[in-house]
Design goal:
It is a single chain. This protein has about 260 residues and is an all-alpha fold. It is about 95% helix and about 0% strand. The protein is rod-shaped and about 185 Å long. The two termini are about 20 Å apart. The model is unreliable at about 1-25 (pLDDT under 50).
């Protein structure tokens, strides 16, 4: 409205100056008109630029306020992504850890059960071998005794029989004692070996657990670092995009 008023006043002034030009023969009407127009243009330019600058300053102030809101929103979104990533990764890592621990416990129990059966079979094999050798030795002795009695003749049958019976009883007694001793020694050996192996397996389980724990800690640290890098990169990207948007707004002001 101000600009229109100025232009109307200018028209009136042109009429006045034009009239003066016609009344004064020595006056340069064109020069007077140019001078008037220049003054009018300069005044109008100052008012237009002042109003434009004021409007633009209001726009910039509004943009600055909006940028602060956008920054807070971006921070909230980034932190939300961070928290969700941390929670999801923590859940997945703990689930994997529990799965490994359950697998480890199950395999350990299976090994221990198989170990007992293995050593039991070993014990049975040793016992059967002892019995076989004892029987073989006994059969050999009986055959030898038979040859001896046949050579000595009928007259020595009673003496040989008595001696063989004594020898047989002693042999059986010694064999039984040997079997008992062998069983006791094997049992003691199996007990000792079982205790040693069980202790070593327990130690191995503890060491493996520590190894798994350290590996999971390392993996978790790597995942956290990766997520931190992603968040930092995303924040930089959003910041650059926001700055570019502001620059585009500023650059486009002169085109409106």
């Amino acid at each position: 409205m101000k600009l229109k008023k100025k232009m109307v006043a200018g028209v009136v002034a042109v009429g006045i100056i034009s009239g003066a030009g016609f009344s004064l023969a020595n006056t340069d009407a064109g020069g007077a008109l140019r001078s008037w127009y220049d003054n009018l243009f300069n005044q109008t330019s100052e008012e237009v630029l002042a109003e434009s600058n004021a409007n633009f300053e209001r726009i910039l102030a509004q943009l600055r306020a909006e940028n602060e809101v956008l920054k807070e929103l971006a921070t909230s979104q980034i932190n939300g992504t961070r928290d969700i990533a941390i929670a999801n990764s923590t859940l997945a890592i703990n689930s994997a850890k529990e799965s490994h621990i359950q697998s480890l416990d199950a395999e350990k129990a299976a090994i221990e059960l198989g170990m007992e059966y293995q050593f039991y079979n070993l014990f049975l094999s040793g016992s059967l071998e002892i019995l076989a050798k004892g029987n073989e030795m006994q059969g050999t002795a009986v055959a030898d005794f038979g040859n001896h009695t046949g050579a000595k003749g009928q007259e020595a049958v009673t003496e040989v029989t008595n001696q063989l019976n004594t020898v047989k009883e002693n042999a059986v007694s010694e064999l039984e004692s040997a079997i008992i001793r062998a069983k006791e020694e094997l049992t003691a050996g199996v007990d000792d070996y079982t205790e040693i192996v069980s202790r070593n397996l327990n130690n191995q389980a503890v060491w493996k657990g520590e190894e798994i724990r350290e590996e999971l800690d390392r993996i978790l640290a790597g995942m956290v670092a990766e997520q931190q890098a992603i968040i930092t990169a995303k924040a930089a990207e959003l910041e650059a995009d926001a700055k570019q948007s502001l620059d585009d707004v500023v650059a486009g002001i002169g085109n409106e």
